[in-house]
Amino acid sequence: MYTSQEPAGRSATASRPDRQSIPDRQSTADRQSTADRQSTADRRSAPDRQSIPDRQSAADRQSAQAGRRGLHALIRTKDGWAVQHAIVTVTDLTGQQVARAEADAEGVVSTGPLAPGVYTAVATAAGYTPAAMTAIATGSGTAELGTVVLARQGGVDLPPPGIWTLDPAHCTIAATAQHLGLSTVRGRFTQFAGRIEVGTDPETSSVAADIVAASIDTGNGTRDDHLRSGDFLNADAYRMISYRSSGLTPAGPDRWIVHGTLTLAGVQRPVDLDLAYLGTGPDPWGGLRAAFRAGTELRREDFAMTYNQVVRAGVNLIGSTLKVELDIQAVQGASVP
What we know:
disordered N terminus, TTHA0802/YceI-like_sf, Lipocalin, Polyisoprenoid-binding protein YceI, 8-stranded antiparallel β-barrel, Lipid/polyisoprenoid-bd_YceI, Immunoglobulin-like, alpha+beta
């Protein structure tokens, strides 16, 4: 009896693990299948999930731009130039200042959020007439002023941006020196060329000019020959006198300080020009012309022009400084008609 029952018992015992292993194998297969299906679904949905932040980011950016808070304005001249460093001051109805902001390089002004209400905004800039306007801040704390136009003091609009070419027939480059401590000797250069590049931002404008040193004319041949010699211009060794600007600084209504480098008799020195803008107008040949006046003083010794004679105690034959005056007329474009 035991012999027949023991195999049966062992068979029953052995069969239980087999029955238990079937669900395990199915479970493993199911898990793998489920994982595969999930992985496939994940791969299919991954691009969609990745694109959601991009779409949201773009929407957020648009929303941020549309819902920006504070006072905003664009400060421009009459002819559309950005007025850099313009200041906009915002006051409430009691006259108390509540905000102040400076324009950036593009003429854009932005303040912090404002409480809903009515304000007065005043835009100011050196060389321009102040402009006052009413600003209404909405419930979101935003006030849009749009484009604010500032008129230049003196009423002269700057020339349009672009290239302007000097017209030698209507320009004068003159130098004056003291003679004998009593009077002055005046001379001018008769051969030169140059151009002005007016920038969209006036302070980025530039000037370049070249003068033939030997073209000096004081009305006296002997004196002119001496000025062309090595005692002064040294025109044989250094044929050209050149000036290259490096920047401009506003100095008042229609006035600028031109910063640059002058090369004279082989010596380079920084030289500033006091520039006045006189206006723009049409010419008889269908062109547009702009007029300027500029001046500076040079020390002869700065350019190794040390020649002199003492005619009496404390008095030299020639003064130590030169007064340079320029009357400039430039034609719009790269050439003169």
